[in-house]
């Protein structure tokens, strides 16, 4: 492995510590090296806190060494004032002579301006080290700024005979989840929820399961809840409307009144529903969303091509009758066993 790749690889590793906490900012990693020895490391703090480069610089004990060091970072240092001052200015202030960057920042307020500022100060800048790996790492941030929509993950569980839900007569009178997968898979899904900014489900999923859509089986932040409820069928006493987690409800009704933690967004259900939802989520700075059902809601996004990856569990249960799982075509990227369940990863081609 080449020396630059070695340290950018470490930056990516560090950056993953920020997964699920930095939205809408990217989760960046940074390493500072002096004579082939790491003297500082950092990753992006939760939103509103310090960026990776700031944390890396602040971790250096002998600051005099910075004037002979190389700073590595997964994404171009920012050049504008946001919640924090520009990272490029801090690098210049400490007279760090070399900066190695994995990927250009597509944000319109940066987009090469950070590199220009560094070069103008006399800094030696190298760009594009492990660029593909950095693109994969920053896929959520890139989707938001380049595709102008959140990064979209489809997730569902299906039975061994291809059903996503049983017939109504298999359910009890009270709404509750009808589990297809094992507790191991259920816990993994809660981990995924903690990593994404939002979770989206349709009306029938809420009515059938009365889900909480939180991360109670994992540690981390609860995602923003997004409910597609065309005619506002969900009763007000259901968990998703309890105001405990920020919730956005998409409806065709003229409901303008909102309460703390609950926002209603009106869309036209006769025209490109998935695209309209994406536009509203963009407006609300939602960088990533995991769509957990039901079949109709998932199919909205599949048919429109508005999805990036799918994670499909197949359990050992047999329903024989029920609601068929969505039809999906994409690039199969691998499978793994989670207990007795089979998890398939698919990417949109």
Describe the structure.
This protein has 349 residues and is an alpha/beta fold. It folds into two domains: 3-142, Cytidine Deaminase, domain 2; 148-347, Dihydrofolate Reductase, subunit A, CATH 3.40.430. 26% of the residues lie in helices and 25% in strands. The two termini are 30 Å apart. The relative contact order is 0.12. The mean pLDDT is 92.
Q: What distance lies between the first and last C-alpha atoms, to the nearest angstrom?
A: 30 Å
What would CATH call the class of the largest domain?
Answer: Alpha Beta
What is the third-level CATH name, the topology of the largest domain?
Dihydrofolate Reductase, subunit A
- Helix/strand-derived class? alpha/beta
CATH architecture of the largest domain: 3-Layer(aba) Sandwich
Our Rg estimate from Cα atoms comes to 23 Å
Largest sheet: 9 strands, mixed
Please identify which CATH superfamily of the largest domain we are dealing with. Answer: Dihydrofolate Reductase, subunit A
Helix content: 25-40%
Order of helices and strands: HEEHEHEHEHHEEHEHEEEHEHEEEE
Tell me briefly what this model is.
The chain has 10 helices and 16 strands.
List the helices and strands and how they pair.
Blueprint: H1 3-15, E1 29-34, E2 37-43, H2 52-58, E3 70-75, H3 87-93, E4 98-103, H4 113-120, E5 124-127, H5 131-137, H6 139-147, E6 151-158, E7 163-165, H7 183-195, E8 198-202, H8 203-209, E9 224-228, E10 247-251, E11 262-266, H9 273-283, E12 288-291, H10 295-304, E13 309-314, E14 323-324, E15 331-338, E16 341-347
Parallel strand pairs: 3-4, 4-5, 6-12, 6-13, 8-9, 8-12, 9-10, 10-11
Antiparallel strand pairs: 1-2, 1-3, 7-14, 13-16, 15-16
